Automatic annotation (TrEMBL):
It comes from the Bacteria. This is DUF4890 domain-containing protein. Keywords: Signal. Residues 1-21 form the signal peptide.
Amino acid sequence: MKKLKTLIICLLVGISWGGFAQERAGRGNFQNLSAEERAKSTVERLTKELSLEKAQQDSIYKISLEQANLDKAAFESANGDREKIRSVMQTNRATYNTKLKKFLTAEQQKKYDKLEKERSSRGPR
């Protein structure tokens, strides 16, 4: 009976560790995606959160793809200098937000601003 209890406890601990590992694996992999996959993921997320129309999705995909390529270039050119990467990406993000808002309605812009505020309040990952 004691061996059975020990076996059950070991199984439960193993299952919970496996679940935690899978949860962590889903985060932070955005950098490992190709520029096209990142843009597609961004458009899907924004479509869900902002109820984008097809024309908006196409336009936002183009600027998201451009943004993903700029981010990738920033990582490659910075040679590990985190401050340089951060500075370049902040500038790129501001430009991206300006371009993105041109394709959004006033209501969508308010929702987007709220989402960005929540995103920035989470701090670094």
